[in-house]
Amino acid sequence: MNDVNNNTVNLINADFHGIHVNLVGDGEAIVFLHGGPGSEQSFFLPHVLPLSQQFKLVFYDQNGCGKSEPSIDNQYSMMNEVNTLELLRKELKLEKINLFGESWGSMLALLYATTYPERVNKILLTAAIGVTAEGFKTFGIELEKRLSENDQLKLSKLEDGLESGQSSINDILSILDKYYVFSEDSLKKKANTSIKPRVNQQIGEDIIKNYDITNKLDTLHHIPILVAQGSDDILTPSLIKELLVDYIPHAKLIEIKNCGHWTVVEKPVEMNDIAKEFFSSNILS
């Protein structure tokens, strides 16, 4: 039993093949895919818990992330995460799943759906990145444009100290976090999540080299897809239209006003309303 925002919530903890899972609520399942790469499921909590009144919410830490065990060979890739999600679907005995993917999780959602299209009901993407590595690269370019000169200098020193162990990825994130939100006050609401450097590096490199689903997008034609992007996301709605929505004509794009990259943290009420309406609607897949 966990007390979240003064509401008692039944969070069922489980482990499947080393993957740490939390389940809450009853009804049709929504599987949440966290970002990073290398972050953890606690990013979503407690912000999306109101959805548990109507749906079964499935949260899990990806391989080597959060409370999940490292992979056997300590190697990480996009397709390993796709396979893990499919394993989780089978373990939970879910015929089809709804996916809620955030940031890197939006890419994982699309990778899974283009690999197992018959297993996906609907997809909600937020803080989306795109359908090719171009989105991932553009994210980095756009983020760097926003950095103040002072923060650029601080980051340069921290990055130099990573290999020697004099600095950590969390030191770097402490500089970058404010650029992910519209209002810095929102950072007070964000969980103190960690990033696993090895996972982040290896999947990041895999994305740069191999992420391109453009030749598989026809497999998504029957799956309703909604993209909720913050007005002030590092990848703005106009950019994500070019990087993602223009490739998937039936996908719908919604702009979340006065919001940065972390929509779930900054605008939880609006995001929950969007998710509730989308996943409960009678759109046939």
UniProtKB/TrEMBL annotation:
This is Alpha/beta hydrolase. Residues 29-268 form the AB hydrolase-1 domain. One of its GO terms (molecular function) is hydrolase activity. It comes from Virgibacillus tibetensis. Keywords: Hydrolase. Belongs to the peptidase S33 family. PANTHER family: HYDROLASE, PUTATIVE (AFU_ORTHOLOGUE AFUA_2G14860)-RELATED (PTHR43798:SF33), MONOACYLGLYCEROL LIPASE (PTHR43798). Pfam families: Abhydrolase_1. InterPro entries: AB_hydrolase_1 (IPR000073), AB_hydrolase_fold (IPR029058), AB_hydrolase_sf (IPR050266), Peptidase_S33 (IPR002410).
